[in-house]
Design a protein that fits this description.
- The complex is a heterodimer of chains A (108) and B (246).
- Chain A is mainly α.
- Chain A has two domains: 43 residues, no CATH class; 49 residues, no CATH class.
- In chain A, α4 packs antiparallel against α5.
- The radius of gyration of chain A is 19 Å and the shape is extended.
- Chain B has 246 residues and is an all-alpha fold.
- Chain B is built from 13 helices and no strands.
- In chain B, α2 runs parallel beside α4.
- The longest helix of chain B is centred in the C-terminal third of the chain and has 24 residues.
- Chain B is globular.
- The chains are: A mainly alpha (108), B mainly alpha (246).
- At the A-B interface, α1, α2, α3, α4 and α5 of A face α3, α4, α5, α6 and α7 of B.
């Protein structure tokens, strides 16, 4: 990352924005009830944004010059499968990383 | 502190303690990856102090690394953090009457773990006073948030000492996948994920990484549509309400 001014802008913006999101109801709304549909939308943004973020990184990894790569694809499927099966973030993380290292060593 | 308030605080500390082992490695990983992306230790720490939310921090970092414009990195990371507004709304009936300066601190320390444990405890101990509720909340925070900062710094120090080519480019994708996988526990979630992935691959050529936001919106729309459909087909089926996401 070359542009540290941009970085600090993003950090400052995230500090304000994250605090704003956490404070908005607690601080400003008081005790009024919130509509259920709004809460549901707010709850599930991560499950849509994170996969959208990760898909191009998996399909066209920068480290291989954008060529799909068997080691990274393998690690993706192991992480996903173990994560779904165990419902455990760290089980997925550890087995996925292990798969990546083994496949990278094996495939050269 | 009175005895009951003190015991609520220590109850929070005890129940928050196991999450130390979940949060610390994440902070460590963030420190390492941030250093690999070119941040110095101070910048990594500033990130963790400013945001205290792993998924949003990793999102912003990834986009900055891809040279996305600052505003796109910001909006995307905040979109990942929208659930914090839901936490805020859910805690409001319990803590909305606390003094303003205490609500400011509650808001700052509102993370997945402090939210999930506190809501659970407040539902169970309906006789708790405001002081007890606040004491429990800050008890949960005690073994979690300080270590988020500490282990970010440790990770940044490790990252500075590590050789560049260890396949670390893929640490972030694996982290995201590992965070998302346990969320895929119902049809609407699967629909959101599938549509978001497909759309982001098709829209990757959009300028300014706008494909990400468009794909995220499409994913959320798909989730809402499938959820309504499930509710029609299986009346009485209520989506799980109390668990925290990433």
């Amino acid at each position: 990352m070359s542009d540290h001014v941009t970085l600090w802008l993003v950090i400052a913006g995230l500090a304000l924005g994250s605090f704003g999101l956490r404070f908005v109801f607690l601080g400003l709304v008081g005790n009024r009830a919130m509509p259920e549909w709004l809460l549901r939308h707010l709850r599930y943004t991560a499950v849509a944004i994170l996969p959208a973020l990760v898909a191009p990184l998996v399909a066209w990894p920068a480290a291989t010059g954008g060529e799909p790569d068997p080691a990274r694809l393998g690690a993706t499927f192991v992480t996903l499968g173990v994560g779904i099966a165990t419902r455990n973030v760290f089980a997925g993380l550890v087995t996925g990383a292990a798969t990546l290292f083994i496949l990278m060593a094996w495939l050269g | 502190m009175t005895t009951t308030v003190k015991s609520a605080y220590w109850k929070g500390v005890r129940e928050g303690a196991p999450f130390f082992f979940i949060v610390s490695p994440f902070a460590l990983l963030f420190g390492v990856v941030a250093t690999e992306a070119g941040l110095n230790i101070l910048e990594s720490l500033a990130f963790s102090v400013a945001v205290i939310a792993g998924a949003a921090q990793f999102t912003a970092l990834q986009l900055l690394q891809d040279d996305a414009p600052a505003i796109i990195a910001l909006v995307s990371a905040l979109a990942v953090n929208l659930r914090m507004a839901m936490y805020s709304a859910t805690l409001t009936p319990h803590l909305g009457a606390a003094p303003m300066w205490k609500r400011v601190f509650v808001a700052y320390f509102l993370v997945d773990q402090s939210f999930a444990l506190s809501v659970g405890a407040y539902e169970k101990h309906r006789d708790w006073s405001m002081s007890q509720k606040l004491a429990y909340f800050f008890g949960v925070v005690t073994p979690i948030c300080p270590f988020w900062y500490v282990f970010t710094v440790v990770g940044a120090m490790i990252g500075e000492a590590m050789p560049a080519s260890l396949g670390l480019d893929f640490a972030m994708p694996i982290t995201f996948i590992a965070m998302v996988a346990p969320m895929l526990r119902s049809l609407p979630h699967l629909a959101a994920c599938f549509v978001a992935v497909t759309a982001s691959l098709l829209l990757v050529a959009l300028p300014l990484n706008l494909g990400l936001l468009a794909a995220g919106l499409l994913g959320m729309t798909a989730r809402a549509a499938v959820e309504q459909w499930v509710a029609r087909v299986k009346p009485g089926h209520v989506p799980q309400a109390k668990e925290a996401e990433a």
